[in-house]
Amino acid sequence: MNRFLSNATNRIDAKGRVSVPSMFRAVLARSAVEELYAWQDFVFPAVSMAGPEVLERFERMIGSQDPFSAEANKMSLLIHGGGVFMKLDGEGRLLVTDFIRDFTGITDRVTFAGRGDHFQLWEPAAFEEMQSRARKERTAIS
Amino acid sequence: MNRFLSNATNRIDAKGRVSVPSMFRAVLARSAVEELYAWQDFVFPAVSMAGPEVLERFERMIGSQDPFSAEANKMSLLIHGGGVFMKLDGEGRLLVTDFIRDFTGITDRVTFAGRGDHFQLWEPAAFEEMQSRARKERTAIS
DNA sequence: GTGGTTCCCATTGACGCCCATGGTGGCCCA
DNA sequence: TGGGCCACCATGGGCGTCAATGGGAACCAC
Asked: In this complex, which of B35, B68, B80 lies closest to A115 when CB atoms are compared?
């Protein structure tokens, strides 16, 4: 399958590394992604990651808006000023930096959540809670 | 027959596997489904499964919304982050993961219930109860 | 040098793939 | 119509492979 799906929780080791689930690595490998682009999610306390092509998509979206609008400015600030590049080691692990920890509250375990064209890093409890809340709201609607 | 009908209860083995009823496997084979998309039902304590085309249907629902809205994000969190791909082994069995157990309460036996374009995994007693209740309500209406 | 990384290698536990067995129902034939 | 044979399905278990994790050692930057 060609998109990021499902979720998995992995442990951070003594050096601050965590394995990206093989399922996600397989998706990355399929599109020959070497370097990951990471940014802070606009809605949730999670850090998102994907190949560099999403950066271009964001830029197009910003370009389509009024360049002086508060929205476009905020988005550009997050995308350009707040994004970082990361790469995985030979075993498919990434280093959990303070950039990630501070924004997500992650300490010793990471929940990876697929989001279709990208995936996210969550503090496990926060993910659980947000997901169950989303389900509850959804049930209320239908 | 080209849809999932009726129900059957099978036992989970020591390795946590359970046979998908051959009736259901036949339906999957007919539409050449190799990989199953599984999600937590929005109403019942059951896990639903179907071919990937269901996922695409969900994604179209998300795609019709503003991609930055909280609504679209929450839906994606459920559909992508809460969904799982599963595949059957050579004998047509699937692994009953914690993803399934936690949500359904399944321990050692699984009731498979056909739902037309998909089928569901239930804890046997929960299925019995839900079905008899549905029958009762139905009778009360007519 | 010293701290923080990156590159490699080791371990182990889970999972996928394969073959075996038994039970049941259907079908054929007498 | 009854008995027996056969095929298929549910189930059990062995074993190899791979992913997740842990840790040593080289390497770089300050």
From this structure: B80
CB contact under 8 A, A5 and B84: yes
A4–B80 CB contact, under 8 Å: yes
CA of B115 to C1' of D4 (A): 39
Q: How sure is the predictor about B34, in pLDDT bands with cuts at 50, 70 and 90?
A: confident
The DSSP secondary structure of chain B, one letter per residue, reads --SB-SEEEEE--TTSEEEPPHHHHHHHHHTT--EEEEEE-SSSS-EEEE-THHHHHHHHHHHTS-TTSHHHHHHHIIIIIS-EEEE--TTSEEE--HHHHHHH--SSEEEEEE-BSSEEEE-HHHHHHHHHHHHHHHHHH-
Residue A56 has pLDDT above 60, yes or no: yes
Q: Which of B29, B68, B39, B11 is nearest to A75 (CA)?
A: B68
What are the pLDDT digits (tens) for B42-91?
999 999 999 999 999 999 999 998 888 889 999 999 999 999 999 999 99
- Tell which residue, B124, B120, B102, B118, has the closest CA to residue B12: B124
The rounded distance, in Å, linking the Cα atoms of B64 and B73 is: 12
- Number of CB pairs < 8 Å for A and B? 67
Overall pTM surpassing 0.85 (yes/no): yes
Residue range B101-140, pLDDT digits in tens: 999 999 999 999 999 999 999 999 999 999 999 888 877 7
Report the relative pairing of strands A17-19 and A7-11 from DSSP bridges: unpaired
In whole angstroms, C14 C1' to B110 CA is 22
Q: What is the pLDDT of residues A9-55, one digit of tens each?
A: 999 999 999 999 999 999 999 888 888 999 999 899 999 999 988 88
Q: For strand D, list residues 20-39 of chain A whose Cβ lies within 7 Å of it.
A: 20-23, 25
